[in-house]
Amino acid sequence: MERREFLQLLGIFSGAAILPGCGDDRSASKLVSYLVPPDEGVLPGEARYLPSTCCECPAGCGLTVRVREDRAVKLEGRPGHPVNDGGLCMRGQAALWRLYHPERLRHPLRRDADGQFQPVSWDEALTLVVEGLRQARQQGRANLLLSGRTTGTLAELQQHFCQQLEVEQLPQFEPFSHAALRQAYGILFAQPEVPHYRIDQSDLLLSLGADLFETFVSPVNYARQLSRAIKQDDFQWIHAEPHYSLTGANAGERLILLPGSEAALLCFLLVRLDAADERNRLPMQLMAALPASSLEETARLTGLPKRRLEQLAKQLRLAERPLLIVGGIATSQPQGLQVALLAGLLQQRLGMVGNRVDFSQAEAYASVGSLHDLERLTERLEQDQVGVLLVSATDPLVQAPAALDLKQKFQRAGLRVGLCDLFNESAQQFDLLLPLSHPLESWGDAVPRRGVFSLLKPAIAPLYDSRSAGEILLEILQRVGQQVQNQSYQEYLFNTWQQRFDQQQLQQFSEQGFLSLPVSAVPHQFRPEAVSSQLATTQAATATAPHLILTPSIRSFDGRSSCLPLLSELPDPLSTVSYGRWLSMAPTAARKLQLRDRDLVRISSGDWSAELPVRLQPGLAATVLMVQGDLLSEAPLPTDARSGELIRRLDGVRLTKLGGAVALAILSGSSSQQGRGLIPDPVHTQEQPLEQTRFYRAHPHKDYRWAMAIDLELCIGCGACAAACYVENNVPVVGQQDHLQGREMSWLRLAPFYDDAGRASFIPMLCQHCHNAPCEPVCPVYAAYHNAEGLNVQVYQRCVGTRYCSNNCPYKVRRFNWWQHQRQAPLEQMLNPDLSVRDRGVMEKCTFCVQRIRQARDRAQDEQRPIRDGEVLTACGQSCPTGAIVFGNLLDESSAVYRLAHSHRAYRVFADLGTEPSIYYLRKG
Amino acid sequence: MDQLAAREKLEQDVLKGLRRPGKWYLLGLAFCTLLFVNALVLWGYQASQGLGVAGIMHPVGWGVYIANFVFWVGIAHSGTLISAVLYLFRARFRTSFNRTAEAMTIFALMVAGMFPLIHLGRVEIFYYLLPYPNQRNLWPNFRSPLVWDVFAITTYLIVSLVFFYVGTLPDLAIVRRRMTGVRARIYSFFSLGWTGSLGQWKQYSRLYLLLAAFATPLVASVHSIVSWDFAVSILPGWHTTIFAPYFVAGAIFSGTAMVIILMVPLRRTLQLQPYISIDHFEAIAKILLFTSLIISYAYLVEYGLAFYGHNQVEMELFRYRALGHYSVLFWLMIICNSLVPLTLFIKRLRRNLAYLFVVALLVNLGMWIERFILIVTSLARDFDPYAWGTYTPSWVEIGITFGSFGLFFMLILLFVKTVPVLSMSELKERL
Lengths: 925, 431
What we know:
Mean pLDDT of chain A: 90
Number of domains of chain A: 4
CATH superfamily of chain B: Formate dehydrogenase/DMSO reductase domain
Largest sheet of chain A: 7 strands, mixed
CATH topology of the largest domain in chain A: Alpha-Beta Plaits
Strand content of chain A: 15-25%
Number of domains of chain B: 1
Helix content of chain B: over 70%
Structural class of chain A: alpha/beta
CATH architecture of the largest domain in chain A: 2-Layer Sandwich
Largest interface: A-B, 53 and 47 residues
Structural class of chain B: mainly alpha
Distance between the termini of chain A: 86 Å
Helix content of chain A: 25-40%
Oligomer: heterodimer
Radius of gyration of chain A: 29 Å
Mean pLDDT of chain B: 91
CATH class of the largest domain in chain A: Alpha Beta
Number of helices of chain B: 16
Number of strands of chain B: 0
Radius of gyration of chain B: 23 Å
Order of helices and strands of chain B: HHHHHHHHHHHHHHHH
CATH class of chain B: Mainly Alpha
Number of strands of chain A: 36
């Protein structure tokens, strides 16, 4: 044998010996285990995009789930969806954390005699339920089903289930039930519903307390609509509220009302506007029932100047298509029902009902109850009338007002069965825990508003031995022989859909994930006679200051999302506090008490008190204190006797300075921009940047120069972009301690800057990808360099961690990995495999989603064409509910970003430093 | 004959220092070593946990570590000044201090050189900063001042080391002569066969002059380059053209103070009063006073630039330095660096060694604070007000800082026991 031959043979044999070791059948089948094999061939490394619906709040936004190798790695708003049309809020972005939450229930649990939870099989668990139901019936106790707001097929199944098994279905529980609003519309128009408000069809929006951008009914939808409305020249938006909300911060004008004076304001407007026009006058009898509301009296009650009141009435009279929205804090107060009624009257009088206040597309809140229903439940629990209590996908134990003491009384139910996803404190109050599948793991549908159907389709196989609520109910029905055996919930859903939709609609539904069906107009009859009696008590005595207002939270909604770590990591938009709870108070009021940020105070009302650190909130009325409701759930808030709505205000609270400060993670270093023109005011717009001398050659760009335009007129500071960035780019969630030390890792931050009058402007600050980047020359190892497409790139492998780049960055957008950040299993499964997880000691920053640019380039290259405008969507831009962020190629003169960058509104932050950022901001006006 | 006796006395006096150490010496050495070992442990802890154990944060990415670096490089400065520059200027009092000052330079540089490594996020790949041929075909970024630092510091260290060693050669030969056994063999090895022949002296003095001439520009260059670490950036308070002279003056200032701190106790414990006179200290004190005036002027210029420049960011920064979170430190710095040295205008104080020692201590405290203020305040308050933040050093940083002093004094103590602290050969010339 020759030497060459020998070597060849050696190669062949050793290769043959190694090859079989390369693949492991077991792990391979585990990696790609599709629930439903997709039609097209699936390639590892290729993402699939599946439709779904967000269930983090009741709004029901459409989702596109990005799935990589059987793992959902990113949620995006579904373009074209009637609710959100592509946008998604920060809670929606964070919903993935619920899917991969380390505390998720992994199998059914049953409490044994010692009070310990023991795993049981589904079979045993469901037998226990069936048995429990039977026993309770025999004992003459009522079996109850309490769920959160449920729509679509599952709601029908619930009804069916309750009928068949003689289970009483309680009205659905939602902390933000909009009960006063619905009751008022019920009285006025026989429509006990939340109508769909068509903001984009109005030319004047007057919103009263309704937190349109935070939690009110459908925030992303309103943000989308408002962005469309703002683009019209003649649109005006006035927001009136006693406290300070993100919505108020973004309104064209924010009127600060004295707490509890909304009714007086509406009364005044109603009388004025009714008198102004002879046609369509409201009945005399009704107007007579209204309390006298002179200009002086209204000015005194509301705290608004007389001129402004007159002008407001005039604006409303002159507007062609006015729209009034009340809600939120305005209806969660002792006079909430009157406010809603007066608003309804005003809507009727100004001709909004039927068009801009649209009941035909009502927001499907009819089956939601109010706190009265919970009160009734506690009474029944006290009287030991409750047998099996099934609680499905809602958390009344935490979210019911403290005054109800539900947690204590809850123990009186015979068998407490919880259908929950997380094994948290309230889950541990149950006797039997049935783990719920995450919406991304289950089949289903949702009807967020009339005529809109949104599909839930499993994006991934269930991670654990969990089932969806529909599956559980169906199986119980099957066990008692009330339903076809062996029919899965999926089949049940398919049958329902087949009956409801025709073939074409069905196909559309499955392909695009949603369906908009034409809805029949709902005849609304105006019934003024029913109102008079309700309005008699409108004029209430002014409440005593200071007032504590418990606001909804954009981050945790009603508190349900506070378990998602990302939402604690993201700062509250107005106060920029991330971790911990705080009391917002006006700087003037704080100065009187010599309080500064983080100083500890005690707030008390009656025999209840709480200790909180202070955070100064510019623009807040001096008599108002503000806490986010879910952070102070133990506050003794009363329930409105008429509407059953929670009264989110405590009057005459006492505030005591305790001395000393506590650590509170306030991310903002200054609430003022110190006149530096990050967001230009008129002074800055006149300044011309200096002519720059350049010592180095300009970077050449051949085909692409990536750039971004951010329209500050559209940016509402909601933080959805920052949340999307976290998920897309594997940005670590670092926790409270690091936040206290100023070590948050967010690549994108939203800086609220307040002017002297307390008006807020928001600016998203991310890597500016400067043409003359200060970070690049100072890096000793070329970890920061400029690439051929205008990106300022950071090579993690190369970075030695001198942090000079961060020091030299005037925008301070670089983030250093102070630790090896850990991700608690199974959270590592949501990592985006398209980019690396950074090691400790390495600098990182916004990359303009370079992985997405890469994908688009690959796609374009396959099709032998240049990348199209709009083909690359950064994660922030994709998520933005108002479409404020536009990304594209600055060399392409037909691109949207080119047009915006050359707009007369365009400017660049710190232009006089000569860094030449690739991000163009568009100033307001 | 007198001269011979005087020489003998000189050798005996100076070499007294090399005798078996006493209790206090050993205690001091143990304490310094303990501080250093503690710092090593803390560094190990930091390396295993990540830089998060230090107090540095966003936006203050550089803190105590870099302040220490600049401080120790500054300390390293006076050695060359006293040795080389004064040698060229034929300043006689130099002879009293030059050996210690040169040793101080080398030790301070060694200490300083640790800090860029300590502050690195990934110290395990520090060699990316060095220009060496590699398969990635990638050089370091020569536009980065941090790379200039690498060159400046290594050049300075090498030149100083050679200068120091060459200067000690004749003395090592003397020690060799007076020692027996193993020690004699060690000194014999290091004295490189020095016999003191006329030919050797001729070569020697030419080399020494050459090295002095070579080291002199480094006095200006090294600390100028260190100052460019800051001046090249765009930060308010850093980006300024006066930094190079300002830093050089500051370095000489603190280095001179350190020489006083070392020499006053040395003179006392080793009974070197006959060789180091009060006049010599007075000469050094004048340098201290002069450089203090220069840096006081630099402080004024900085404020003047901020005020007349009318740059909002710059003005806010300098307001913040004087009145913000670190204002106590700022005023302490002004007292230590600008006010206290002014008392040296009084001759009586200048010649009072105890007083001079205290002033030197305060000056070094002030100069350390100056570096801290300069680095931290500029980072804490730069352009975007949202990103403002305050920095507090952690116990790891403080421990490592003390450890650096431990290392420095440990090396000095070892030096005192191994090398003659005065240049005997030069002193002999003066006899």
